[in-house]
Amino acid sequence: MGDFQPPQTDIITLSRHVLNEGFKMANQKQVTGEFTLLLNSLQTTCKVIEDLVRKARLNNMTGVAGAQNVQGEDQKKLDVISNEVMVNALVASGQSAVLVSEEEEEAIIVSDRRAAETGKYCLVFDPLDGSSNIDAGVNVGTIFGIYQVQPGSSGSIKDVLRPGREMVAAGYCMYGSSANIVLSTGTGVDGFTLDNSIGEFILTHPKIQIPPRGQIYSINEGNAMYYHPPITKYLDSIKFPEPPKKPYSARYIGSMVADVHRTLLYGGIFCYPADKKSTKGKLRMLYEAFPMAFLAEQAGGLATTGEKRVLDVVPTTIHERCPIFLGSREDVQDLLSFFKE
Ligand code: AHM
Ligand code: MG
Questions:
Q1: Gap between the Cα atoms of 166 and 169, Å rounded
Q2: What are the pocket residues of ligand 1 if the criterion is a CB atom closer than 6 Å to any ligand atom?
Q3: Ligand 1 center to residue 17 CA distance, Å?
């Protein structure tokens, strides 16, 4: 067989990792496999969406679909189809009770569609975040957060109008030069890379830890004239530091999954503040801010609105927005000192 060398280390697939985590979480109690089934549906969805994204140009799937979503934004063709893929897979998994999608005006109560087979998990998700970047071939991603229904509930909107700290898992799949799932079930953060040749997500980034301090800031500075003073002052402090400190580098892709992915791996700070134009910020609390804040904290970083921990905010509507600053612990603390002034 020539020079072929079998892998030196044990290969851990996402499915195996989730099963292992399930055993650990259950702590000797019987493992039902329900969460594993749910995660399997999610990872299959990600594989389908990654295939759609890769072939979008070839299959004439770029451009707008001719409709607008609840935010009044043009829906891209891939937004619409990714949402359908995800909703169908999660309903069919039999493990979901409530679904909230960026692309659906109302929450989907699964028992209304499939009374016989509902589960105990509520999923909040953005099927294809950053879709305005698709036509330029820039990284996009699927973001998700998972709650369990509350005791006695068979699934209602109240099960998702809860603070992010009550999520049992969160993650994203980034469709970039490779497809990467980054997942936390509340015991740290692990990253998996899709090996297209075998169709499996393989553990490539175990126990991701955000460096305590970074050297990169990530914000849409085109909005600078609308910023409130704490943001302007903080940015000045990292762009014009007292020597011998060096100024930070700016990196802003405009695709949250990609900007957060880089922040998790390299450190620094990602910001989408509230400003004079967007008084609540832009990013959606349930399916953008909460999952990313969950991951940031689980990786040893921080996530704040400037006033409080993101994961402590209680949403009142499913498509609510909130400001968010996340990343390296020391960088976020520096920013907070300007809010306290
Ligand atoms: P979308 O959900 O409509 O794709 O918008 C969310 C995206 C995020 O991925 C990104 O962080 C942000 O919008 C960028 O916004 P802006 O162009 O205002 O900087
Ligand atoms: Mg989005």
A1: 9
A2: 73, 102, 126, 129-132, 220, 254-256, 259, 272, 282
A3: 31
